[in-house]
Amino acid sequence: MSAHERLRVFVGLELPPAVRDAIEEVAARWQPTLAGFRWGRPEDLHVTLAFLGAVDAEDLEAIDGRLTTTAAGISPFATRLADLGRFPPEGRARVLWVGLDDAETRIADLAAAVRTGLASWLEPEERPLQPHVTIARARRDARVPRDLVGDRPAPVGFEVRAITLFRSHLGQGAPHYEVLARRALGARAAELP
Prior knowledge:
Helix content is about 20%, strand content about 35%. By secondary structure, it is an alpha+beta fold.
């Protein structure tokens, strides 16, 4: 990788296998009835906290340093899968997602801390965070049944113990993601590579 290379990167949460399995179960119920959507690969499911877009490769060390500092100041916490929804909520759906329980705003607070730490590389975000895992994106004028939003995944819980810096590789089909850095939350910051 050259110093002047630009990489598409974002910060997010990785999901444990049991959570990915529960999401795949709900996606499998809907895939046969939802034409016009491109479904994500199970290994690429994640929660986005901050999208940086294209950054210079030479900035990765500084970005990682800010993430390490941010992660050290936040304690691990628990969440769980909560609901199924779409963006936008009305009209033509562009994204289908599985939501996470954030009643205590721990995910929103974590995202705000990440965005504050990485403000030099981010555009200001006006929309409030709605913690979710994108499971499908519309390819064309897709129709979404009304009962989709009433469906729920199994409420599988997990502990958020780290934030991850991902690189997004675009190409034919769905993008795939590469882990560039993983930084543990709280006092355990030295435990993860």
